[in-house]
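Bump. Still looking for Glycoside hydrolase family 1 protein structure tokens.
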Amino acid sequence: MSLPKNFLWGGATAANQFEGGYREGGKGLSTADVMTGGTHTTPRRITPKLEEGTYYPSHEAIDFYHNYKEDIRLFAEMGFNVFRMSINWTRIFPNGDELEPNEEGLKFYDDVFAELKKYNIEPLVTISHYEMPFGLVEKYNGWASREVIDCYVRYCDTIFNRYKDVVKYWLTFNEINCLTNKFGSFMAGGILLEDGGELVLNANDDNDSSKQIRFQALHHQFIASAKAVKLGHEINSDFKIGCMIAYMCTYPYTCNPEDVFLAQQRDNLNNFLCSDVQVRGAYPGFAKRYFKENNIEIKMEENDEEILKEGCVDFYTFSYYMSNCTTADKEVEKTAGNIMGGAKNPYLKASDWGWQIDPKGLRWTLNNIYNRYQIPMMVVENGLGAVDKVEDGSIKDDYRISYLRDHIIEMKEAVEDGVELIGYTPWGCIDLVSASTGEMKKRYGFIYVDKDNDGNGDLSRSKKDSFYWYKKVIESNGEILE
Ligand code: BG6
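Sorry for the wait, here they are.
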């Protein structure tokens, strides 16, 4: 069982969770910059005006802004040939609606890409990863407004032209399917909902009047993404532009047909609605029915359907952390999850944050998606958020190694099943700020960063046991997993 020779091995990050330098180089304020820290029991808050004395994790994050050379050198040492990162929209257009970009911001990414090139590391760039200019929130309520499409396309035009010879792989929006979730509406959509600024994970979204706003905003992102794909291909026909979905793998809790059907419906709505639009270029029938039954009316302009058809992505990428179950039985115990939870699976163990660990689910997921689309795929996020202890200067994260090993085994099985998998970039290859909780304590990295939840620490980097392990995995193209 072997992976293709040119398989892309690397790691994944997002600007707002690791760059820091939140006011440097002419950068504007982003949605992530107004989100406070939290824990898994205390939700993060949105503070439209920055509060003195409040801790905002994105402001310094792990300061990749000043440490990118050292960090990239460490990635190269592990053998990365791809690195997933995002461009911070507010470095390029600080307020979002300017007509001219900020040169200093563009220059920063010139430098980062040059550094990656030095080590032959291919950048994989997410254009918008859980942040947008806060200026666009104030002016338009984020993606709720159609005006934002033009701002986004101008931003894409700028970065596509600037980096057309150094970046080939692009993703238009991170976890686009999370926008319709209440938690994701601000993080992914920059939408301030009327019911306040507290981000509650796994919120119950049923019968909520804000659904109309959220699905309309999603439509705007679909149009923006399709326009970006078309534009990107015009600028450089070698560009590969993909979608990025938070794949929430869900099983029927029992073989009761009600559970089986509900699980399929959930798979359709949570996972396939967005990729059907982005891969196939049109809304699926089940989405139209869902809109009708939930009084959602998507306002479309005359040529929107054509735009969607003309902007289909070249490849499919997704995040995979866990699975859960779906049941019609309201009494079944619930479990937490990546943005959304579900019914607890009695056969699975969970992380300290309650995310159920399910390597086999990754094989199931890869097959499930590939059966539908038959286009190249990449796992662009996967990993275990865990508490690490530094003992005598070393970090023995065998739990992380075991999580990743088991997932890579299933990934290889899926390739053997016929899935066209081209790359793997585990999440948070260097410790960074957690998106859901704002914590540093929830670590995913191969590289440890000295910083705690309150911002204390000297930001020094050190190699965990998993660093040496992953290096061997990459060197052997996934043959050596011990
Ligand atoms: C994905 C996001 O949902 O999961 C990342 O794309 C995020 O931004 C990652 O960090 C892990 O989630 P968390 O909440 O543990 O940081």
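The chain has one domain: 8-475.

Edit: fixed formatting.
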